[in-house]
Amino acid sequence: MTSSSPVDVALIGGGIMSATLAALIKQLQPDWTIEIFERLGDVAEESSNPWNNAGTGHAALCELNYMPQGKDGSLDPSKAIAINEQFQLSRQFWSSLVARGILRDPSTFINATPHMTFVQGGKNVAYLRERYNVLKKQPLFHDMEYSEDSRVIHKWAPLLMKKRLKGEPFAATRVASGTDVDFGALTHQLFDATTDAGARLRLNTEVRSLKKQKDGTWLIRHRLLVGKTPGETRARFVFVGAGGWALKLLQKSGIPEIKGYGVFPISGQFLRTDNPSVVAAHKAKVYSQAAVGAPPMSVPHLDTRVVNGESSLLFGPYAGFSPKFLKNGSVLDIVAQVRPSNLIPMLAVAKDNPSLITYLIGELLASKSKKFRSLQAFMPTAKPEDWYLITAGQRAQVMKKDEKKGGVLQFGTEVIASSDGTIAGLLGASPGASTAVPIMIDVLKKCFPNEFAQWEPQISGLIPSYGMLLNENPAQASAVLSKTAEALAITR
């Protein structure tokens, strides 16, 4: 069945990106028609599901990979600052939606959870000390604390220090204003509000192809997974927020902008405990340093998670390999993506990243006892009977052309848009969900240049700091952060 007239916006994928874009459009252009397609029986079942991600609310407060040490030993805070700036935009947007009654009680999707970094060994301690000294001068990081005192660190996170052997240097930083975000709950609430406002959500519906029509619209061929009933929908604009499958669909669209891109899927597991006595003893997200050759998304961390009002702890991730682009994808995904335009970049990535391959093989061969020992390095009192393994979501890291190397593996997210702005998609992973709002604003700016100038005053109403850099305006940063924290009920 084909729709008689085109919808204004079609969103493919029921995750936080599509949900955020839908919410933005409904605020900026409420008369536009929106149709959402999701393969599974509910939204937020892939990377946006709370058990498929760490829910950190990435603000670069604790993630060392956002501030690597240069070859000369210097530390550049620019990337950490940029990510924090982006997360502040997301927080402001959520707080505005709470004030408008679009999002429910903030505690249903965001909770105050200190962000910490914990390192061991003289070299790592020296690095963390210098990182603290650099970031402490930045307005967005002014409340960061640092200590090499076991008594102080024990007060911050007792499970890190109980029964820890003496002798080796260790250090920690802490930002009490960090958060835990349930992106699954947030995604559900955003879609609920969007569908209440007239959008149509098609569950159990798989998009099979995308074809540009002579009138400039896109013909979307889809089918129900139950009964295989086919259908067609026309849309003036298409956003592909389908995780790893975004690559496949953008390739099917035929837009030249997707040429040269590929994705490298990485799976993972976490150890989880719901034991109330263990969970009650730790309230923080504690990150450390990734193993040599490990991808940034594999940085070990011991996290407080709050899902449906219940707290748990996660430790991991333990990286693995699956050829699927989604947790519910196909084992042929990694082969089916190959095109003449991306073959050389993919081969170059394989050649230039032997340490990553070695790391993944080591992770795949790791026994349960070895995995547990890595938890005990973080938490010496951990007991095997309290913890169980869960499988996390798939992360599809971007591979792309590079003039010098032929191809590079990129850790981050990237918007791919057609030259005429009628279709766009998102590739990549972390810090994705936490920066969904600025990423989707970027999509609107790229794809709707004529309308965007008219929308900017409304965007500023939703996001007071839009268009400015908070880190360069200390007084404004303090005011915005305090107001947002109060609105989201995450004041400490």
UniProtKB/TrEMBL annotation:
Classification of source organism: Bacteria, Bacillati, Actinomycetota, Actinomycetes, Micrococcales
This protein's UniProt keywords: FAD, Flavoprotein, Oxidoreductase, Tricarboxylic acid cycle
GO terms of biological process kind: tricarboxylic acid cycle
UniProt-listed Pfam families: Mqo
InterPro entries xref list: FAD/NAD-bd_sf, MQO
EC number per UniProt: 1.1.5.4
Name of the featured protein: Probable malate:quinone oxidoreductase
GO MF: (S)-2-hydroxyglutarate dehydrogenase activity; L-malate dehydrogenase (quinone) activity
Major enzyme class: oxidoreductase
Keyword Mitochondrion annotated: no
PANTHER family assigned to the protein according to its UniProt record, in alphabetical order: L-2-HYDROXYGLUTARATE DEHYDROGENASE, MITOCHONDRIAL
Cofactor(s) it depends on: FAD
Family, as annotated: Belongs to the MQO family.
Record-linked SUPFAM superfamilies: FAD/NAD(P)-binding domain (SSF51905)
Biological source species: Mycetocola miduiensis
Gene name per UniProt: mqo
Known catalytic reactions: (S)-malate + a quinone = a quinol + oxaloacetate
Taxonomic superkingdom: Bacteria
Pathway terms, separated by semicolons: Carbohydrate metabolism; tricarboxylic acid cycle; oxaloacetate from (S)-malate (quinone route): step 1/1
